[in-house]
Write a structure and sequence with these properties.
Order of helices and strands of chain B: EEEEEEEEEEE
Order of helices and strands of chain A: EEEEEEEEEEE
Structural class of chain A: mainly beta
Number of strands of chain A: 11
Shape of chain B: globular
Radius of gyration of chain B: 13 Å
Distance between the termini of chain B: 41 Å
Number of helices of chain A: 0
Largest sheet of chain A: 7 strands, mixed
Number of helices of chain B: 0
Largest interface: A-B, 28 and 24 residues
Structural class of chain B: mainly beta
Strand content of chain B: over 45%
Helix content of chain A: under 10%
Distance between the termini of chain A: 38 Å
Number of strands of chain B: 11
Oligomer: heterodimer
């Protein structure tokens, strides 16, 4: 069966510090991968999606970036965090080419102080 | 730009009643629409998917309708239970299987 992991589960970082969040999927190959952010009082916002290694599409221009160094690994990064980057970050996957449900990870709660 | 709205942020109902949640969208014609449930501090969990050529879909006590003319989906939970209390998210297909989500409606079912 397939599973999705995210770490860390929680993170408190100062403004201006770098960020690296990791997401890995097990039990499948060539999944489509997604990063979402859920800020307080706001909906789930699509940040990036990837349909293959090294292929990243950005939905929202901001100080975040994403990379997919391996088939089942998706990384969200920032060189300098802003207060507005605080939120709940969720990774999700879908079998490649399948228009169906998305499977979400447990999420990372990021607080920028 | 496309916009997706869920009728209210919060809905309070009594146990046993039917909860009806609304999702409206503009400036877009999605091929399908999905509903998710999210509990506090957890990732969303998929409930139902309905395609543009389907009018209604059911799963146990859940029912979803999709009116592409009105650009609206209704999500019903019949015989609601306190365990149904959660936030329910509407999502439209966007591009390459990505989704855009509404802000959600938080349902509270009291016994």
């Amino acid at each position: 069966s397939q599973t999705i992991h995210q770490w860390p589960a929680t993170l408190v970082q100062p403004v201006g510090s770098p960020l690296s969040l990791e997401c890995t999927v097990e039990g499948t190959s060539n999944p489509n991968l997604y990063w979402y952010r859920q800020a307080a009082g706001r909906g789930l916002q699509l940040l990036f999606y990837s349909v293959g290694i090294g292929q990243i599409s950005s939905e929202v221009p901001q100080n975040l970036s994403a990379s997919r160094p391996q088939d089942r690994q998706f990384i969200l990064s920032s060189k300098k965090l802003l207060l507005s980057d605080s939120g709940f970050y969720l990774c999700a996957w879908v079998p490649s080419g399948v228009y169906n449900e998305q499977f979400f990870g447990p999420g990372t709660r990021l607080t920028v102080l | 730009s496309q916009k997706i709205e869920q009728n209210s942020e919060a809905l309070n109902i009594q146990e046993g009643k039917t909860a009806t949640l609304t999702c409206n969208y503009t400036n877009y014609s999605p091929a399908y629409l999905q509903w998710y449930r999210q509990d506090p501090g957890r990732g969303p969990v998929f409930l139902l998917l309905i395609r543009e050529n389907e009018k209604e879909k059911r799963k146990e006590r859940l029912k979803v309708t999709f009116d592409t003319t009105l650009k609206q989906s209704l999500f019903h939970i019949t015989a609601s239970q306190p365990a149904d209390s959660a936030t329910y998210l509407c999502a439209l297909e966007w591009v390459r299987t990505a989704l855009i989500f509404g802000k959600g409606t938080t349902l509270s079912v009291s016994s």
